[in-house]
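Sequence in, structure out. Go.
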Amino acid sequence: MDRIQFLRDMFQAAVAAADPMKTLPKALGEKPEGRVIVVGAGKASARMAEAVESLWGPCEGLVITRYGYARPTISIEIVEAAHPVPDQAALDATDRMLTLLSNLGEEDFVLALISGGGSSLLCAPSQGISLQDMQAVHQALLKSGAPIQKMNTVRKHLSRIKGGQLAATAHPATILSLMISDVAGDDPSDIASGVTVGENTSSQSALSILGEYEIELPASVMAVLRQGSSVISPSDARLKMVRNQIISAPSQSLEAACNALGDMDIECRILGDANEGEAREEAVRQVELAIDIQSRMSAGDRPVLLLSGGECTVSGWGGGIGGPNAEFSLAAAIALHGCAGIHLLACDTDGVDGAAEVAGAVVHPNTLSRAQEMGLDPQAYLDRSDSHRFFEQVGGQVVTGPTLTNVNDFRAILIETKG
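Output:
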C-alpha cells in the first residue's frame, strides 16, 4: 500500500462528503412563491449558489467568495474578494448586499448561504472605521493566536453586518440560512461571525479579548468599541423569521473518511472534530499518542488510523510562510524522529492553509533524513513559522486548489508496527 496516497485518499473522502452539491439538496425544499433573494459569503458559498440554481433554476442574488473560488451560475452574481484580509472588492460587494436586503416585505424570502471565510469576505465596518483600519484588525487578529471564536467576537462588534445584522437588515422577510461549519462545536453564531444569528456578547467582551491576547488596534477602532456596537440580541423580534441550519460539519467528514476504509483491515479511531490550541503543541500530543499506540502493537496487528479535526493556531509568527496544518506536520516530523511505521497528513479542507495556496503537508519516516541530506534544519524552519517553505523543498506539500467547501482542518495518522 502507498501510505501517502492512502492518506491523501482519506483527505479527499472527507472533502467530498462536504461538497455542497451533495449536502445542500437534502436541506433545500421547493422554491418559495414570490420574490426570492439569494445571498451568501464564504469559501463554499459560490458552490452552494451553484447547487441552489441546479435545483431552483435562475435566482436573484449576490454571493461573495474568495478569489479563485467562483463557480458558474445562471443569474446569481458571484463576486470574488480577498481572504483572510478584506479588500475594496469585499467592501463594495457587502454594501451592495445590504442594499439588496433593504426594504423587503413579509412576503419576500431570503436564502443565505454561509460558510467559513465569510468573516473576511463580508466587510461592512462600523461608522468611523476605514477599510485600512479593518485590514489592520484582521492582520492583528490572525497573528494573535486567538481561537476563531474570539477573533469573530471582536469582528462582530466592529461591523454593520455580523452578529445578526444581516438578518435584521432583511426584516421582515423570511430567512433560511444554510451553513457549512468550520468551527469547533458547530455554533451557528461562530460561522462567518453569525450574520443571521443573535449575539450574546458585548463590545466590552471584545475589549477583554484584545487585552487577553495583547492585541493592539488603531485608535479609531478602539474608540468605536468603547462606544458599544450594533449587534442583534438573540431575543430581538427581527430574528423570529430566521431559521439557521448546518448542512455540513467537520464530524460528518471525519466519519466519511472512516467509512471510506470499506473492508480494509485498518482500525479507525476518531480523536474528535474540535481539537484546538497551538499547532505545534497539538502535533506533539498526537505524535506521543501514536508512538504509545505503536509500542503496544505486536507483529501482525492491523494498522491504526487516527483522525481528528478542529482548528489549530499559530502564534508568535516568526516571519516565515506557514499555516496551522503545515506547522502541525513539521512539528510532528520533528517529534517522530524518523520513527518507522508512522505516516501522517494534515490539511485544511478548503485547500488553503494559512494565507498560502497550499492545503497542508504529508510526513513519512524519511522526511527528516531527506531534510538533513538537503542541508535543511527543520527546527529552524519551525522556529520562524516557515513550514510551507520547508515542505516545498522536501516534497511534502499537498496542493489541491479550491476545494469549494470548508469544514476546517483534517488530520490523519497511520500507525503500523515497526517490523
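Check: Residues 339 and 365 are 6 Å apart (CA to CA). The first helix runs from residue 3 to 17.
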